[in-house]
């Protein structure tokens, strides 16, 4: 019995006991009344939600855990995710997700493929891929026989790739992309289990689109221990260097063995210059030297010096070559703005002009002003390195093909 | 730490029970210290150094607020307020606009033959700086206006750093949040069904719709508009309208839902903005907390509509231009603000002209309302073109693609799934509110087990339909 002394009138005239047992519903005015919930029930729902959600999404969560940055958090995540994935498979609770993914045409989203590429070019001499340059005669392209390219890689590939596609639009169809930019955030060659395995993915891409040129950018996420193979330790260990070199060389051979040309874009300096100087430069050197072993087929585009200021420091804003100071780097100090992307696209076009004849189709009667990149841009390191020449060093002063 | 990640889910599953245990303590000091630590940890996940900036902002504004409150003389109060406003804007200007203005100045002088080489600092932008600076400003200004009393340092610190809103809003006023710190929080009375509904609605908007449209059409068309037909360009513009709405309102839905689970109410930030019948109506429905901030702390102090018609237009234009600049240091944002300011002024002028001539309001028929909604949406989309484009050239290039010459080109990028996503994004805004309310009420009456299972399947649906990884929220950069 509720006595008068225990009564504590509220606005609604309810007692404390009544309020505790039947809390007022939510929803004022015309709103439908929502039943309130106790904190314990909220937690209980949260736990059920996590349990059911985890079981139903176990394969995706396992892949996310595998792709986490190396360290104790990843260890804990994989320790928890792996048995739940097995349990989910056993209980068949992973089937709805599989079915949905298959229906969407993305059945391979949750696959973890750590197959690694191996080089066929041997240090001592020729193997599957010749180490001598291809014929010196440039293959000619025209609007009726376009030079096709695919551009992709990690997130640093995106904006320069868009610039490249935009620049290709100014060639009257002589240079044509086979697909939009294919950028995958946080990926690289160090961790084939993160999002996509580039070696395997590039096989699919080249088979699907058959591009004549592949423009590839990875490396900025690769300054970490390598997974998918024997332990390598950190960047700087000889084992790391050998294994990373093997992966880079493997992808290069994989691409060029199909008769394609590979343009490999290196790492830029970033706001964290310590990381750039100590790690990105080491990775770039591997790219450069591996490209040099495949002259005329693999071209390394060294963009590092293009994004330094006069004092050799990282800079967000740089001279665009026309005297104007423009923002070339994103707010994160890593990615590029469109002006930064344009700078890289210019360098890639220099390589394309060096490697291919993109202009002779225009006229056989008039002497065309060629846009072949300056020899200095491509002769270093056995003909496999480009872009260390200053901007605008092309013979015509133009860095993109002029195809009227 | 992004909301739609496993890391955040774990973080929140720890914070939630501890928060409800501690908030029942009579003094709540432990709860405040805990929430402050949790919020700083959440913020430090992006860049630990900027926690010091957040702390410095809190201390500076608290000192200014206290000083204004203790000062009797109106002149002195105004001086302190000026110091507070200048201090906040200086920090915002340094991090957000310094490099932009220095490089613009350098280029301007270069154009007239004067060469200078000022130092460009390549500054990292602290996430959420615009949001927490605006909240701090509202606190100090409200104290100056004697609308609120200064609170304790710890209360103010919790208010400024509260993790559900610290990085991307909604911009909650001190007068809305601080009283809730003193309210009795009943752990038996949580509006959980609304909270879960909002969190999952936000997840769907962000993970499924916004990410899908961004990757399937928006990014590629805005990057290289010259490659696309009129139909694809138009679809990309509409798709961006849906993307930015789903991205930002999805974030705020989640923020409001998370706060509700912790027992706090945030103001509504979006109210079906693409159903607006004019731009004034749009700004009552879009980023509502920013709109009222700009109205109360910029438009009205500038004079609002109290002066001549010309002064009203000037105030509207200034408010919208500065609102544009708030989003970032770029001319594209200025043009975006200019379009809104211009059309708002036009609406005011038209309304005033009808009043002057003694003409009555036109009847609000269904057909007329549909036309007004359509026209308003097209104006908003026109402004979005500038907001999204990397440069003015790109914006005009995209608009140029809408010319008749490109209407008969093929549109291979325009897939049915994109049209459906756009239709869902816009059509969902026409669902009556009471339908949503009834859905929430029905859900709230399910048993906890049934609710958990239903939400688990919703998670399957969202997680499977969405692309891998989580793209950053658009408004994090502002």
Describe this structure in words.
Chain A is an alpha/beta fold. Chain A is 36% helix and 9% strand. In chain A, strand 8 (317-319) and strand 9 (325-327) form a beta hairpin. Chain A is globular. The relative contact order of chain A is 0.10. The two termini of chain B are 17 Å apart. In chain B, helix 3 runs antiparallel to helix 4, helix 9 crosses helix 17 and helix 15 packs across helix 16 (392-400). Chain B folds into 2 domains: 6-182, no CATH class; 192-473, no CATH class. With 478 residues, chain B is mainly alpha-helical. Chain B has 19 helices and no strands. Classes of the chains: A alpha/beta (404), B mainly alpha (478). Chains A and B meet through helix 2, helix 3, helix 5, helix 6 and strand 9 of A and helix 1, helix 5, helix 9, helix 18 and helix 19 of B.
Order of helices and strands of chain A, N to C?
HHHHHEEHEEHEHEHEEEHEHE
Derived structural class of chain A:
alpha/beta
Q: Are there runs of chain A of 5+ residues with pLDDT below 50, and where?
A: 1-12, 365-404
User: Which ranges of chain B are low-confidence, i.e. pLDDT below 50, for 5 or more consecutive residues?
Assistant: none
Portion of residues within helices of chain A: 25-40%
- What proportion of the residues of chain B is helical, as a percent range? 55-70%
Quickly give the CATH architecture of the largest domain in chain A: 3-Layer(aba) Sandwich
The biggest beta sheet of chain B is recorded as: none
The total number of structural domains of chain A is 2
CATH topology of the largest domain in chain A: Rossmann fold
């Amino acid at each position: 019995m509720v006595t008068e002394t225990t009564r504590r009138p509220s606005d609604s005239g309810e007692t404390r006991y009544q309020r505790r047992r039947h809390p007022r519903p939510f929803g004022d005015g015309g709103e439908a009344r929502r039943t309130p919930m106790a904190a314990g029930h909220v937690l209980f729902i949260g736990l059920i939600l996590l349990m059911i959600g985890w079981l139903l999404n176990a394969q995706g969560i396992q892949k996310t855990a595998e792709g986490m940055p190396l360290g104790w958090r990843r260890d804990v995540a994989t320790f928890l995710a792996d048995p739940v994935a097995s349990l989910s498979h056993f209980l068949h609770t992973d089937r709805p997700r599989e079915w949905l993914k298959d229906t969407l045409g993305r059945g391979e989203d949750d696959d973890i493929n750590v197959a690694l590429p191996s080089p066929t070019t041997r240090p001592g001499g020729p193997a599957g891929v010749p180490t001598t340059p291809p014929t010196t005669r440039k293959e000619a392209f025209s609007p009726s026989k376009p030079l096709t390219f695919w551009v992709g890689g990690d997130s640093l590939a995106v904006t320069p790739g868009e610039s490249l596609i935009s620049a290709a639009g100014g060639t009257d169809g002589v240079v044509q992309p086979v697909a939009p930019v294919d950028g995958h955030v946080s990926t690289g060659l160090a961790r084939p289990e993160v999002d996509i395995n580039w070696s395997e993915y590039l096989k699919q891409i080249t088979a699907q689109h058959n591009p004549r040129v592949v423009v590839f950018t990875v490396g900025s996420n690769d300054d970490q221990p390598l997974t998918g193979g024997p332990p390598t330790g950190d960047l700087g260990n000889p084992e790391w260097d050998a294994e990373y070199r093997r992966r880079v060389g493997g992808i290069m051979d994989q691409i060029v063995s199909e008769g394609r040309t590979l343009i490999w874009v290196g790492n830029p300096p970033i706001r964290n210059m310590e990381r750039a100087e100590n790690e990105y430069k080491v990775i770039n050197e591997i790219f450069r030297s591996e490209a040099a072993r495949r002259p005329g087929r693999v071209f390394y585009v060294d963009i590092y010096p293009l994004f330094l200021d006069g004092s050799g420091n990282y800079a967000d804003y740089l001279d665009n070559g026309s005297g104007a100071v423009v923002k070339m780097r994103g707010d994160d100090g890593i990615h590029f703005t469109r002006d930064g992307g344009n700078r890289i696209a210019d360098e890639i076009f220099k390589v394309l002009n060096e490697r291919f004849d993109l202009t002779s189709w225009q006229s056989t009667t008039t002497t065309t002003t060629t846009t072949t990149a300056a020899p200095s841009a491509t002769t270093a390191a056995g003909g496999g390195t480009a872009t260390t020449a200053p901007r605008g060093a092309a013979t015509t002063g133009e860095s993109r093909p002029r195809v009227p | 730490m992004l909301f739609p990640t496993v890391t955040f889910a774990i973080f929140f599953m720890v914070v939630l029970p501890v928060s409800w245990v501690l908030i029942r303590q009579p003094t709540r000091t432990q709860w405040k210290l805990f929430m402050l630590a949790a919020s700083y940890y959440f913020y430090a996940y992006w860049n630990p150094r900027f926690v010091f900036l957040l702390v410095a902002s809190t201390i500076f504004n608290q000192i200014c607020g206290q000083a204004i409150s203790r000062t009797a003389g109106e002149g002195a109060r105004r001086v302190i307020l000026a110091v507070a406003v200048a201090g906040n804007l200086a920090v915002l200007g340094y991090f957000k606009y310094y490099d932009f203005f220095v490089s613009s100045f350098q280029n301007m002088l270069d154009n007239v033959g004067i060469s200078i080489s000022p130092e460009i600092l390549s500054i990292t932008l602290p996430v959420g700086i615009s949001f927490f600076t605006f909240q701090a400003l509202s606190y100090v200004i409200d104290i100056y206006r004697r609308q609120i009393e200064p609170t304790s340092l710890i209360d103010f610190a919790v208010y400024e750093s509260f993790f559900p809103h610290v990085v991307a809003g909604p911009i909650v006023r001190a007068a809305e949040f601080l009283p809730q710190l003193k309210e009795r929080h009943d752990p038996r009375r949580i509006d959980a069904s609304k909270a879960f509904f909002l969190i999952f609605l936000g997840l769907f908007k962000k993970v499924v719709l916004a990410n899908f449209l961004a990757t399937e059409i928006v990014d590629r068309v805005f990057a290289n508009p010259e490659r696309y037909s009129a139909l694809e360009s138009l679809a990309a513009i509409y798709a961006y309208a849906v993307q930015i709405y789903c991205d930002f309102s999805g974030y705020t839905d989640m923020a409001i839902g998370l706060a509700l689970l912790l027992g706090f109410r945030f103001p509504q930030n979006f109210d079906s903005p693409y159903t607006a019948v004019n731009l004034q109506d749009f700004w009552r429905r879009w980023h509502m907390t920013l709109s009222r901030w700009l109205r109360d702390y910029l438009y009205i102090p500038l004079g609002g509509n109290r002066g001549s018609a010309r002064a009203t237009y000037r105030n509207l234009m200034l408010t919208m231009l500065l609102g544009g600049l708030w989003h970032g240091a770029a001319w594209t944002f200025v043009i975006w603000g200019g379009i809104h300011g211009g059309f708002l002024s036009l609406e005011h002028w038209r309304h005033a002209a009808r009043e002057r001539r003694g003409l009555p309001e036109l009847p609000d028929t269904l057909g007329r309302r549909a036309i007004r909604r359509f026209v308003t949406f097209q104006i908003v989309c026109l402004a979005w073109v500038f907001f999204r484009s990397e440069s003015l050239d790109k914006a005009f290039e995209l608009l140029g693609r809408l010319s008749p010459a490109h209407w008969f080109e093929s549109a291979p990028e325009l897939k049915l799934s994109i049209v459906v996503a756009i239709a869902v994004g816009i059509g969902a805004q026409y669902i009556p509110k009471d339908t949503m309310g009834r859905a929430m009420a029905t859900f709230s009456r399910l048993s906890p087990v049934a609710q958990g299972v239903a939400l688990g399947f919703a998670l399957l649906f969202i997680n499977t339909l969405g692309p891998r990884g989580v793209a950053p929220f658009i408004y994090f950069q502002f």
